[in-house]
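Field log, afternoon session.

UNIT: design team B
ACTIVITY: writing a sequence onto a fixed backbone
BACKBONE:
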């Protein structure tokens, strides 16, 4: 395979396009007394009558400090789902290119590949839910633009072996996307610490899970400034609204509270795992580094319905490969976990 060349990976129409320059790209409110008559906004001040900063400078500066990375290596999106879609649209030619994903995994990779008319080549994880590197490299060809790793993986919860990801990074000349939506619950370091080593690495994170802000929709993408520059060209100018920028900024300043919440979830999770093993119809609890547990039961459809009728909503993941008869439990408060276990023992 050829060596990595970013310009060869970008869709030609996007490589040559001029990005839309918005009014707020040229001038931002920054305390200076200016009269803004450039963006057809309402002049009546209400806190959100002006368009938001298209480059989210304040928020990126804070994230850059916290993650010890340059702001030019960050792109923010309306959830990480928007970021994943931008990656597809920047690099994959519809009807021609393909991507590789590794089921059982997050369903959006397949939804986005279908939406963008990109073939999704699926290489099922092994029985320990780890990737089969040779299998992945075997199905990759010159039209394979992206390989998706989800670590910790959803719905299984396990971290993907870093040695295997590294092997793929070293032998694949397209882009490797590592979805770290659950990394804050894991003991291992984020792949963002290794961006300098791998020009073909993209890492996505989100404020929707460990940071407790699913409702504001904020996803974060980390990559080389060259990759970020390409994604910036095609992102909608005001993709992160002002309320989201303000809320995220305020929230991220309370890092001690966030970390305490994560520690509490991890300890609830570890308790939950222990007691789940006492439930007679539970046959397997998959080791997890996330805020959920995948549990194999005797009859997932039956148990799902029984939980529902007791007022507990979980996710049935049985239709995914290697996930026959599995339910995924999100770790709630310790009271919610207790209630889950009480009901599980009751419906025994
Ligand atoms: C929840 C989840 C996301 C979605 O993140 P948003 O930022 O809320 O869009 C992305 N990837 C995985 C694996 C997830 O489980």
């Amino acid at each position: 395979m050829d060596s990595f060349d970013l310009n060869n990976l970008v869709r030609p129409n996007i490589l040559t396009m001029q990005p839309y320059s918005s009014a707020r790209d040229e001038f931002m409110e920054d305390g200076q007394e200016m009269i803004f008559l450039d963006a057809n906004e309402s002049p009546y001040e209400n806190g959100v009558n002006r368009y938001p900063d298209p480059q989210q400078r304040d928020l990126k500066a804070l994230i850059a400090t916290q993650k010890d990375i340059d702001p030019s290596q960050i792109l923010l999106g309306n959830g990480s789902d928007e970021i994943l879609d931008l990656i597809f649209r920047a690099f994959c030619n519809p009807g021609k290119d393909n991507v590789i994903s590794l089921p059982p995994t997050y369903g959006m990779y397949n939804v986005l590949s279908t939406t963008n008319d990109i073939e999704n080549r699926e290489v099922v994880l092994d029985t320990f839910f780890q990737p089969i590197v040779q299998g992945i490299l075997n199905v990759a060809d010159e039209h394979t633009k992206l390989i998706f790793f989800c670590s910790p993986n959803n719905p299984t919860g396990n971290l993907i072996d870093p040695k295997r990801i590294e092997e793929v990074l070293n032998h694949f000349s397209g882009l490797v996307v590592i979805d770290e939506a659950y990394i804050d619950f894991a003991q291992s370091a984020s792949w963002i610490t290794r961006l300098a080593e791998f020009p073909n690495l993209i890492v996505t994170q989100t404020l929707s899970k460990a940071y407790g802000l699913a409702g504001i929709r904020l996803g974060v993408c980390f990559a080389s400034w060259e990759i970020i520059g390409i994604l910036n060209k095609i992102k909608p100018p005001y993709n992160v609204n002002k309320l989201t920028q303000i809320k995220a900024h305020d929230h991220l300043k309370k890092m001690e509270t966030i970390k305490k919440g994560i520690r509490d979830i991890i300890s609830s999770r570890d308790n939950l795992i222990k007691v789940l093993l006492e439930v007679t119809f539970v046959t397997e609890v998959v080791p997890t580094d996330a805020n959920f547990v995948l549990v194999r039961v005797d009859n997932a459809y039956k148990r799902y319905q029984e939980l529902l009728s007791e007022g507990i909503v979980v996710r049935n993941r049985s239709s995914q490969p290697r996930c026959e008869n599995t339910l995924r439990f999100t770790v709630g408060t310790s009271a919610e976990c207790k209630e889950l276990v009480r009901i599980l023992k009751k419906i025994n």
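LOG NOTE: The radius of gyration is 22 Å.
NEXT ACTIVITY: expression trials, pending approval
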